[in-house]
Amino acid sequence: MLKYALQIRPKQINRFPWQLSNQNWRRSYSSKIRNIGILAHIDAGKTTTTERMLFYAGKTRALGEVHRGNTVTDYLTQERERGITICSSAVTFPWNGHRINLLDTPGHIDFTMEVEQSLYAVDGVVVVLDGTAGVEAQTVTVWSQADKHKLPRLIFINKMDRPDADFEKCVLDLKDKLETQPVCLQYPVKNEQGLLAINDVITLEQLSWQQKDLGRSYKNIKLEPSDSLRQLQEKRNELIDRLSGLDDELADVVISTESFDEVDNALIERALRRATSQQKVVPVLLGSAYKNVGIQRLMDAVNSYLPAPEERNQIYDCFGTEVAGKVFKIVHDKQRGPLTLVRILRGEIKRGMRLISARGQAEVVSKLYEPLADEYREVSAVQSGDVVICAGLKSTVTGDLLTSSQSALKNAQKRLKQSLGAATTKDEEDDEPDELDELFSIDPQIPDAVYFCSIEPPSVSSQTAMEQALRQLQREDPSLRVSYDTVTGQTVLGGMGELHMDIIKSRILSEYKIDVDLGPLQIAYKETIETPALNTLSVEKEIAGSKQNVSITLEVVKNQTELFSLDKSPENLANLNTLRPRILQVLRKGSISALERGPRVGGQVVDTQIRLHNASIGRGTADSFVMATAAQCVQKLLSTSGTRLLEPIMALQIVAPSERISGIIADLSRRRALINDVLPKGERNKMILVNAPLAELSGYSSALRTISSGTASMTMQPCGFASMNSADESLAERRAQGLE
Ligand SMILES: Nc1nc2c(ncn2[C@@H]2O[C@H](COP(=O)(O)OP(=O)(O)OP(=O)(O)O)[C@@H](O)[C@H]2O)c(=O)[nH]1
Asked: Where on this chain does GTP bind (predicted)?
């Protein structure tokens, strides 16, 4: 029987706090913000879920659908055409007196870097599972990324409308494959009309969504005494029991009342919030984004259980009231130029403000915008805890820490050092502790490119425009590498995979109207020398009537730290000391440029140092001639001494039922893989930790699906380069020459 029915009227309740009372919102501003990421395996339903959130929050008037290509967050042409997310996008919307800043992130492995950067900007994440597939390969990857950033999580099991959805299997997967502690706050049921409804463990209600208003409203009905109610009560008791083991306030009440039935819902929610924030539990909710079921409750859970900005990032307290902001993404807008997405960790960013990056560059914020995917609403100031888009920052790069002034930065460093109890004497200042390095670091961890291909403009006249487009795309996407091959005269793109390159090509066409051609995709091998070698090259030429004369002696040696050095033996050093610093720079530049392309497959030459023994430069010799001679000398050295190839290696974590492990290992050993460990994972599964050459992994995810009959899940990420045996080297060379 219906005890009460609540009609949600979003327009009435979804106001930003500052629309209610100007004074109050300032006080509670930060506590009412939720910065969240939405993460998942490809196609689990992140974009569909985000669309519903925007719709119910009153931010959009119509429901966007991925298959119709009209979603807000997948705004790039390629995303709409392909129905996938490529760039993470930020949207902001009000919900029940809170402001949710949400980043929708890509699910495909080629865009892992994009996800990694977004996680700097969030305080918690919603991990979406496809209810028919459970934990999948990329779910495991994003889960470990969230682990790395120590982010509290909620799980949303989506697609529960589908007949093949299996809630229990998903929960088992969470325990086994992610080794997490899921707490189910909801269970799926089919209601009287055969539609998906949800039983709520805390309130003991059944929730059913109205389809005639696209799921805007839902009914919550107190369950009548029945088997379902008894089962749900048992689940509620288990939840209280579990949480009281983790939370003192709840434990005290349980002990004093001696009955779980007496425990107040608000108290359970408070305990759940604390346990979630401390990452002791992960609340699990369910629904169907496509069929408009369960989304409002997911948004309520974001407000209730995920932390506010002020509850995290205490390390930035060292900035006091000064600005501290982390750049997590740069996008290029045709009209507005480069736009920098900043998570404000401390202070307030105002329009016209001067900001400096930890690298010391000062820039002025010309305009500020509130994020809504590719739409921009101008604002004049944004406070700590929020996410903002800044226009006018031209040299800032992803990963930069921005603050108000050099002195603010210095003071923050000093305060942090003191609070860490680190050394403050002059001698020890260079030796800063890890936390400092991490906090003020400017280089995001950009993975090495594992594939490359040449890129050609349609005509010589569009070469400059193509280079400009690539420069802009590179600022947006640091995992895209662009280099120039002096031998073939081609521009070369390095990246994370076929889809990555393909998307770059189509973005250059749709956004810059240049129809570029990509060469065949090749594995990005590196090269290294085996033995040191010394060579002298003397070149004399007359160019345009002017005599050019260079004699140079260089050595290549194995070294991982420095690319170029001067030979320290007394007889050479005396001569080298007479060279002008500018000439030394030219020699250095020319020599190092030759390391970009090794003699065997054109791979970058690494772990190699060039040592200058001697150089004599004739009067009037042009710098370009000196540079070219140095490069030629290094090339000769490399081809005479010979190089070895290094191939990209991927680290895989494969989780599968124990009985499937031997079949998977047998297949891996045929792929030149190195099994590092096999660990138990949950009750029924094992996890294989393995390193394997990328060259052997083409189509591996479908092979694994076949071998394990779809029971295995896998994560894969680049983990460095390794040497190869001669037979594999020859095969790689033949492949690079297009002979295989
Ligand atoms: N039956 C059903 N289909 C859904 C549901 N949610 C999403 N879909 C469909 O699943 C497909 C993928 O949904 P998306 O929202 O694009 O998934 P995504 O996780 O954003 O995908 P990527 O961003 O490309 O990783 C689309 O065809 C959706 O219409 C759901 O709850 N039920």
From this structure: 40-47, 104-108, 158-161
Q: Please tell me the distance from the alpha carbon of residue 615 to that of residue 599, in angstroms, as a whole number.
A: 24
Q: Interhelix angle for 581-593 vs 623-641, to 10°?
A: 40
CA distance 536 to 588: 16
Atom 7, ligand 1: residue with shortest CA distance: 45
622-679 per-position pLDDT tens digit: 999 999 999 999 999 998 888 999 998 988 888 889 999 999 999 999 999 999 999 8
The token pair that represents 233 in the structure block: 């009560």
Residue nearest to atom 26 of ligand 1 (CA): 66
Helices and strands in the chain: count of H runs, count of E runs: 22, 36
41 annotated binding-site participant: yes
**Residue 447: DSSP 8-state:** P
Angle between helices 498-512 and 463-476 (to 10 degrees): 120
The H or E element that residue 318 is part of is none
Question: 239-270, pLDDT tens digit by residue?
Answer: 999 999 998 898 888 888 877 887 889 999 99
State if residue 156 touches ligand 1 by the CB under 6 angstroms criterion.
no
DSSP annotation of 488: T
Token code pair at residue 294: 């369960």
Nearest partner of 373 among 88, 33, 711, judged by Cα: 88
3-state secondary structure of 235: helix
Please state, as a whole number, how many other Cβ atoms lie within 10 Å of the Cβ of residue 333: 13
Residue identified by tokens 């934990």 is 135
Nearest to 192 by CA among 221, 214, 229: 221
Residue 137 annotated as part of some ligand binding site: no
Binding site annotation covers 46? Answer: yes
Say if residue 240 is exposed, middle or buried (CB neighbours under 10 Å; 0-12, 13-18, 19+).
buried
Q: What are phi and psi of 69, to 5 degrees?
A: 70, 30
Question: What distance lies between CA 17 and its chain's CA centroid?
Answer: 31
ipTM over 0.90? The verdict is: yes
* Closest C-alpha to 200, from 244, 172, 239, 251: 239
Q: Look up residue 333 and give its two tokens.
A: 């807008």
Instruction: State how far the Cα of 90 lies from the Cα of 149, in Å rounded to an integer.
Output: 19
CB of 607 within 8 A of CB of 559? yes
What spacing in Å lies between the alpha carbon of 192 and ligand 1's midpoint?
26
Residue 1: count of CB within 10 angstroms of its CB: 6
Q: How far apart are CA 338 and CA 65, in angstroms?
A: 29
**Phi and psi for 613 in degrees, rounded to 5?**
-95, -40
Distances (CA, A) of 353 to 356, 380, 405, 558: 10, 10, 11, 48
CA distances from 47 to 72, 91, 181, 528 (A): 9, 11, 26, 44
**Residue of 497, 462, 368, 442 lying closest to 109 (CA atoms):** 497
How far is Cα 358 from Cα 432, in angstroms, rounded to an integer?
Answer: 15
Q: Give the whole-angstrom CA distance, residue 690 versus residue 717.
A: 11
